[in-house]
Amino acid sequence: VYGYGVENNLIIKWHTLIWGKQYPKWFEGLSETESKGAVRNWFANIAARYPEIDEIAVVNELQNPGATGTEFFKNQLGGEGQTGYDWVIWIFQQARRYFPRAKLYINDYGILSNASKRAKHIEVANILKERKLIDMQRKVEILGSALKKALVKLDALETFTQGMLTSFQIHIGKDEWDKIVEQLKDINKRD
Known about the structure:
The protein is an alpha/beta fold. It contains seven helices and five strands, in the order H-E-H-E-H-H-E-H-E-H-E-H. The strands form two sheets. Strands 1-2-3 form a three-stranded parallel beta sheet. A two-stranded parallel ribbon has the order 4-5.
């Protein structure tokens, strides 16, 4: 898939570097120093094998209560620290180091339908933005009739960074879907 994307000048997106829902169980037995070394090694190997990655969801579903590994990653990679998200900052610093040309995202769902989740998402994104560690972000779910309200909420997210939908779920009929697909045919082409 990677080779096909490079050969056809498509945007290459890596999903995801760190996700509390999926990680190797051997990681749990490591010290903080060993954990950080393992993450650096992981990122270095991805960067060496896939040097043409354009976009990366660095941290996925930070606020997902079912992602039990999120607490584990927080504790193993530096903890809350002064910002409450020092461990996320560290992950993004490493991602920027190993993927200097890639656009870096933080990815989550439900940020439009849940005000407290949206506020936390904006808080984390602003912390990363202050450090020039995040480029664009968001994963959005929209139900057809809620589109207008969702666009207002999207505007609130736009206030802190350039915006991009990294994932978009919309519940509509097949005819409407076919029209959208036709309009968006070349959206994944590089400039």
